[in-house]
Write a structure and sequence with these properties.
Elements: H1 2-18, H2 24-31, H3 40-69, H4 71-90, H5 95-108, H6 112-121, H7 128-153, H8 156-159, H9 169-172, H10 176-192, H11 207-215, H12 218-224, H13 235-263, H14 275-304, H15 306-321, H16 332-354
Helix pairs in contact: 1-4, 1-6, 1-7, 1-10, 2-3, 3-4, 3-5, 4-5, 4-10, 6-7, 7-10, 7-14, 14-15, 14-16, 15-16
């Protein structure tokens, strides 16, 4: 039951991020903040980044709060912020409103670190890898569901005129429906979190570790105690964090740039895709990530090992990314095959990278 809560809360946290990509370009265009069509990408980049900027400022704070008062309050507050501010984002009529609500949503959504800690604490030591895999699997599911929601539900009056009229609330706010769908799911998850058990009491050093430290000499215990060491002097940890930052930057930039590039007009080097088209591409990429993680990654990890698989995945990612500019010369079935294949392989390779890093 605890792992089920981990899955649904992680999914509720991932959907506000992933559902935005298919309609981000069109939303900025309709907000009429860009002076020219070429400037839409700049404003869309700032809007897409505002969520992560807010998260980067507050992530450590929420981790400390979760250690002080418990995981459950932070998790519930984060889900509540999704319900409120994701809905407000769909109601934005000005660019500054959209930018502000995304920034505040990122700053108040401190779910990622506490939910990983929670997934470990509800499992015994031999099953902690399973707990973390639930988080990754739910995030992968969000990469499928989120873009599909954003692609199919954005601008419903244009796509489904027989269901939604221009005089309705969805005619005035064409991007409210996907945001509202995510917020409703988050509200259901928030209600279910009432039965979420707290695990902060489990976040303590095992008695056998305390006994072992006491048996050491005073000088040795001083140097071995983790509280006496600086993380900046932990070179394996530092190298892992630096790699994680670079790959995280790469993966986030790829997701946003792919969407903006695909929906841009062909005269500007894009593909002239609709929000529905790019939503399908991102959903297929998320599905391939999920399938690779559940079926194939175990065998790759077994035969190649984590470090070698990470290096191979990094090198192959460079080759795949280099093919995207040439896709503008394709059309029809050839374009669909090339784009879907590249996006699916890129998502699968990301599993081999982020499974090794924390």
């Amino acid at each position: 039951m605890e792992l089920f809560f981990v899955a649904v809360t992680t999914l509720a946290s991932s959907l506000p991020i992933t559902c935005l990509f298919p309609f981000l370009y069109f939303m900025v265009r309709d907000l009429q903040v860009a002076q020219t069509e070429e400037d839409i990408g700049n404003y869309a980049g700032f809007l897409g980044a505002s969520y992560m900027v807010g998260r980067s400022f507050a992530a450590i704070f929420w981790g400390v709060v979760a250690d002080r008062i418990g995981r459950k309050p932070v998790i519930m507050f984060s889900i509540l912020s999704v319900v409120i501010f994701n809905t407000l984002f769909g109601l934005s009529t000005k660019y500054w409103m959209a930018l502000t609500t995304r920034f505040v949503l990122g700053a108040l959504n401190g779910l990622l670190a506490p939910i990983k800690a929670y997934s470990i604490e509800v499992c015994q030591t031999e099953h902690q890898a399973l707990g973390l895999s639930i988080v990754n699997t739910a995030w992968g599911l969000g990469l499928v569901v989120g873009p599909a929601l954003g692609g199919y539900l954005a601008q419903p009056v244009e796509k489904y005129p027989h269901i939604f009229s221009k005089e309705s609330v969805f005619g005035r706010f064409p991007y409210l429906l996907p945001c509202l769908g995510v917020s409703l799911f988050a509200a259901i998850v928030l209600i279910s979190c009432i039965w979420l058990p707290e695990t902060i009491h489990k976040h303590k050093s095992p008695e056998k570790d305390i006994k072992r430290i006491k048996e050491l000499s005073l000088q040795q215990a001083y140097w071995d105690s983790p509280r006496k060491k600086s993380l900046l002097q932990n070179w394996p940890w530092m190298s892992t964090m630096i790699s994680y930052c670079f790959f995280g930057l790469h993966d986030t930039a790829y997701s946003e740039i792919l969407s903006l590039w695909a929906v841009s007009d062909r005269k500007y080097g894009g593909l002239s895709f609709s929000s529905e088209d790019i939503g399908q591409v991102l959903a297929a990429a998320g599905a391939s990530l999920l399938a690779y993680q559940l079926i194939f990654y175990h065998w790759v990890h077994k035969f190649l090992g984590p470090i070698i698989s990470l290096r191979i995945a990094s090198a192959l990612s460079i080759l795949i990314l280099s093919t995207y500019p040439f896709m503008t010369y394709l059309s029809g079935t050839g374009l669909s095959f090339a784009l879907y294949s590249a996006a699916m392989m890129k998502s699968a390779l990301a599993v081999s990278i982020f499974k090794v890093l924390p």
